[in-house]
Design brief:
The protein has 14 helices and 17 strands. It is of the alpha/beta class. Strands 3-2-1-4-5-8-9 form a seven-stranded parallel beta sheet. Strands 12-11-10-15-16-17 form a six-stranded parallel beta sheet, sandwiched between helices. Helix 3 (about 100-125) packs across helix 4, helix 7 (about 270-290) runs parallel beside helix 8 and helix 7 crosses helix 12 (about 415-430).
């Protein structure tokens, strides 16, 4: 079997990117095998902007047995966090740097890249890796680390050894307009400091949307990426099992209360505070109509962005709903009991619980220009759930005007959206034929925009390049 490894630039133990990776591994690498775990580096040692996990990561309880997560710290020192953050800031403002400043920045990048090159070289050799899946490593969160990965890969595959690095980008420079204060975190386009896929014959490059492929086509690299859409999870079975009912008891969900899912990180651009306000209006309308008031489940980790977390908690408190919001502190890649004996459910199990309780999905980005796909409505569709969705640029390309959901209105009238969302939830529970037909149309569009065939073709190419003409296993979903 082809030996794959994962390098993810998120600096988080759980995220949407890792969940999509899990979906890919499940469908095309065979079911995840705890006896042959995938070696992974999740970026803890180079993302000081994720203070809850820098530099050592999270407890082992966060990971499924099929993932072997590195805790290596190739660089150390009391000034490391500040140096990494300042290098990222200087790369983002490179156009404003003079010749001397550019030269100094190159030296600083090289000083950090050396230890990481040695680390990656040893790591690839230790695990005898055929293909590294490098997720969102083209962004400039830590250009010394990306440069080091390029060099280590060149050493391993430079002599014609089969295999290499698959750069798999869910976000790119121009379309991921994240800001910290008034400063853009990433440059709007690549510059002399940002290593791009295509510098070595062993590089492959995939992006998750046609919009990203179009952006990348203007980058100064000879390698053209292929569009490989995200792989969605399989539809969850109906009904609840013991782990689900126990989970509902532990979060204090009384029978009959619909669960609303917010499948995003607690990160400013994800707009969790908007979901909280919408949830408050939904509770108010439910009270007025004499219906059970919903409970809100936010997937993200409160430790990722402490300042923003405080704003979200303040918003929930001011809206009077704090006691009715459950922060799940990161949804695991596989459901399990934690060391505290409490259940932590994965994405599919949470969708299953949402469906069984007559709930739905809220997806409310606070900026229109940071979601390259926006998977929230797609996840709702997988489970046959209605969704309430805010404005973001990719919505029209991915979902379109005919997609059934409750949209946030531009006049800010959240009560109207709340009424519409509750109406969709009731139509589902009541088995309204028009709702079922609209959801079938939603699902057909999702099947069209998230086909598994591009990933199957890519996987077969990777496998055939390392094992000979070997095809990928049959997709268990038959898609």
């Amino acid at each position: 079997m082809v030996k794959i490894a994962l390098v993810c630039g998120d600096g988080l133990p759980v995220s949407g990117l890792l969940t999509v990776f899990r979906n890919v591994v499940t469908r095309f690498h065979g079911r995840p095998d705890p006896h042959e775990p995938v070696p992974a580096d999740l970026g803890y040692s180079w993302r000081p902007d994720k203070p809850a996990f820098f530099p050592d990561g999270a407890g082992a309880d966060c990971y499924p047995p099929w993932l072997r997560v590195s805790r290596a710290r190739p660089c150390a020192g009391p000034d490391l966090a500040g140096e990494l953050l300042d290098v990222r800031r200087q790369v983002a403002r490179a156009d404003a740097l003079g010749p001397g400043e550019r030269a100094r920045l190159h030296r600083r990048v090289e000083a950090l890249a050396g230890p990481y090159r040695a680390y990656f070289s040893e790591w690839l050799h230790e695990h005898d890796v055929d293909w590294v899946v490098a997720v969102n490593m083209t962004l400039s969160d830590a250009v010394p680390v990306t440069l080091a990965l390029h060099r280590a890969a060149g050493e391993r595959w430079g002599g014609g050894r089969p295999g290499g690095v698959l750069f798999w980008d869910h976000d790119l420079f121009g379309s991921y307009a994240v800001h910290e204060g008034d400063e853009r975190v990433y440059p709007p386009a690549p510059n002399e400091f940002t290593p791009l896929p295509g510098g070595h014959p062993a590089h492959r490059w995939a992006v998750v949307s046609e919009a990203l492929r179009a952006e990348a086509s203007g980058y100064p690299t000879p390698l053209e990426p292929v569009t490989v859409p995200n792989v969605l999870p399989e539809a969850p079975p109906e009904g609840l099992e013991d782990r689900h009912t126990e989970f509902l008891e532990q979060i204090g969900a009384a029978p009959g209360r619909p669960l609303l899912l917010v499948p995003v990180r607690v990160f400013r651009v994800k707009g969790v505070e908007i979901s909280v306000r919408l949830f408050s209006r939904m509770r108010q309308v439910s009270r007025e109509q004499g219906r059970p008031e919903p409970l809100l489940l936010v997937f993200g980790d409160l430790g990722e962005d402490p300042d923003y977390t405080e704003e979200v908690l303040d918003e929930a408190s001011q809206e009077g709903v704090l006691d009715h919001v459950r922060f799940l502190d990161g949804v695991p890649l596989q459901s399990h009991r934690g060391t505290d004996l409490r259940w932590r459910l994965d994405e599919v199990d949470l969708l299953r619980v949402g469906a069984a309780t007559g709930g739905g999905v809220l997806f409310t980005p606070s900026r229109p220009d940071v979601e390259s796909v926006g998977l929230g409505p797609a996840l709702a569709t997988v489970a046959g759930l209605p969704s309430a969705v805010g404005d973001f640029h990719a919505f029209s390309d991915i979902y379109g005007d005919a997609f059934l959901c409750a949209r946030l209105h531009r006049d800010g009238d959240l009560r109207r959206t709340a009424e519409e969302m509750l109406g969709l939830m009731r139509a589902r529970v009541d088995g309204e034929p028009w709702f079922a037909e609209a959801m079938r149309r939603n699902r057909a569009r999702m099947d069209s925009h998230f086909p598994v065939e591009p990933w199957r073709r890519l996987w077969e190419e990777l496998v055939s390049g390392t094992e000979g003409a070997v095809t990928a296993p049959e997709d268990p979903a038959g898609a």
